[in-house]
Amino acid sequence: MKRVRGMLGNLGNLLLAIILAVLVWVVAERQANPSSDKTFSDPIPLTRQNLPAGMVAYDASAEAVRVTVSVPDNVWNELNPNQITAWIDLSGQLSGTLDLPVKVSVPNRAAPVVKIEPAFVRLKMEPLAETQLPVSVAVSGDPAPQFAARPLETIPTTVTARGPASFVRMIAAASGQLSIQDARATISRTIALIPRDRDGQTVPYVTLNPSSTLAVVQLQQLGGYRDLAVKIELRGTVAPGYLTTNVSVNPQIVTVFGGSSALEALPGFISTEPVSVTDATGDINSRVRLVLPPGVSFLGDPTVQVEVKIKAIESSVTTFAPLTPQGLSPDLSARFSPEILDVILSGPIASLNALQPSDIQAFANLFNLTEGTYQITPTVSVPSGINVVSILPSTVQVTIGPYVTPTLTTTATITSPLPSPTP
């Protein structure tokens, strides 16, 4: 019996020692990694769980919450905000305005939640309703004068509205808008639909399926009118070294009216008066009259805006340029290696052909340099419109030394016989 008591006493001492050791470890761990309150920088999205069947929740006062945890630094660095969930529990709730607590789950037990903002969320809940709505697309504007618009067609003609019952009852139609202003051809366009009440106000918290409709308005051209494409008549040739890159006209189509026989005799286009591009070196932008065929009249302005884009033909050339020092002290001299640079230039052919050797200048910036050997980057100056593609070599060695004054040597030259001595 005494032996059993001794064993129990030893076991108790062992358990006490283990508990004390654990306490010491916990205290040491907390001292080494003290906890502090930290708030996640990004709000945590708020979900709704256990929504009763046939009900809908809406108008929540918050869709996300900020979560603060008490956590040691070493644990904080391991936390992933994407693993944190926040929700409100709707189980057992009835219709009306609800104030529900926010619940948050953090996967790491070493990071207990100490604060949730907001801690409660207010929202509304009521029965879910669904109904069929007519599609109503308002057509605005008028087509071009020579066209008549047929009645609007929509596909589909009805859509399904779904949402809180009190809001679904408010909807009168699924509405959209379509403009046919100045249209010259049948319009077929997808129109976004919006649930609206009888006063034309948007009804919130309701979804439409489908959310759009295909609206079609067919246009019919009236008798006595005809649309013609505009044909630009260019005359001449641009200057040598230039080319025409684009020709445009606005409007591209004009309308004429007249007798049926005169209209039927017309080709599918109408020409402008001649537009001269002779020796042009730049863009042409001008108002040009149209040539009216006999027996018809214009509907509107008889002129069009013509734009001709003209661009210089570009090429490249390799030339050379001697280096000129800049900023060198008067008591110093410079020797370059190499002394002459190869320069590749690009630009309009006409400009390249007109270049003179004096137009291309290469410089070496030697400001504040003293005696010695340096590697410098030269620069090249060329006329406007010319581009420096490359300088070869891109760096040049320069040796700077004292300036040596040239020594002049005088040599006497006899240009006539010396006089004979006098006896």
Could you name the CATH class of the largest domain?
Mainly Beta
Share of β-strand residues: over 45%
CATH T-level fold name of the largest domain: RNA Polymerase Alpha Subunit, Chain A, domain 2
What is the CATH H-level superfamily of the largest domain?
Answer: YbbR-like domain
Structural class: mainly beta
Number of E-state strands:
35
CATH architecture field of the largest domain = Beta Complex
Contiguous low-pLDDT stretches (5 residues minimum) are: 409-423
Give the tally of structural domains. Answer: 4
Q: What is the percent of helical residues? A: 10-25%
Could you explain how this protein is built, in words?
The structure is a single chain. With 423 residues, the protein is mainly beta. It has four domains: 35-118, RNA Polymerase Alpha Subunit, Chain A, domain 2; 128-221, YbbR-like domain (RNA Polymerase Alpha Subunit, Chain A, domain 2, Beta Complex), CATH 2.170.120; 225-312, RNA Polymerase Alpha Subunit, Chain A, domain 2; 314-402, RNA Polymerase Alpha Subunit, Chain A, domain 2 (Beta Complex). It has helices at residues 2-32, 73-76, 165-168, 260-265, 349-353, and strands at 35-39, 44-49, 55-58, 64-72, 85-89, 96-101, 103-105, 113-117, 120-140, 147-149, 153-155, 158-164, 173-179, 187-192, 194-196, 207-209, 212-217, 219-221, 225-231, 234-235, 242-250, 253-258, 269-271, 275-276, 284-289, 296-298, 303-312, 314-326, 332-337, 340-348, 361-365, 372-376, 379-381, 387-392, 396-402. 14% of the residues are buried.
